[in-house]
Write a structure and sequence with these properties.
Blueprint (H helix, E strand, L loop, with lengths): L1 H52 L6 H45 L1
Helix pairs in contact: 1-2
């Protein structure tokens, strides 16, 4: 009976470690994508800023469209920065949880 408990505990610990490793892989894949998206949005925001400097060359509907796109990009940029911050914190937590699991194995 005691041996069955030990086996169950090992399987549970193994399952947790597997879930942590899976999450670590997700973080390794997602973080560079978020960073790239932030960079692309930053470049596009610069382009929009340049267009707004030459606002006289645009008609009213184009001006409105450019401003709306700028607002959207600003909000999206902030959301991506928040996501990157959360992913970074999660990566640290996952790494800390995996260290003891590695030592036990």
């Amino acid at each position: 009976m005691a041996e069955a408990k030990k086996t169950g505990a090992k399987e549970a610990a193994g399952g947790e470690a597997k879930a942590l490793r899976s999450r670590k892989v997700y973080l390794q894949v997602r973080m560079p994508k978020v960073r790239e998206e932030i960079k692309v949005i930053g470049d596009e925001r610069k382009t929009i800023s340049e267009k707004l400097k030459n606002v006289a060359a645009l008609d009213a509907s184009q001006q409105k469209a450019v401003r709306e796109r700028g607002v959207y990009l600003s909000h999206h940029h902030n959301a991506l920065r928040a996501e990157l911050k959360a992913l970074t914190a999660e990566r640290q937590v996952v790494g800390e949880k995996l260290r003891p699991a590695r030592k036990k194995a």
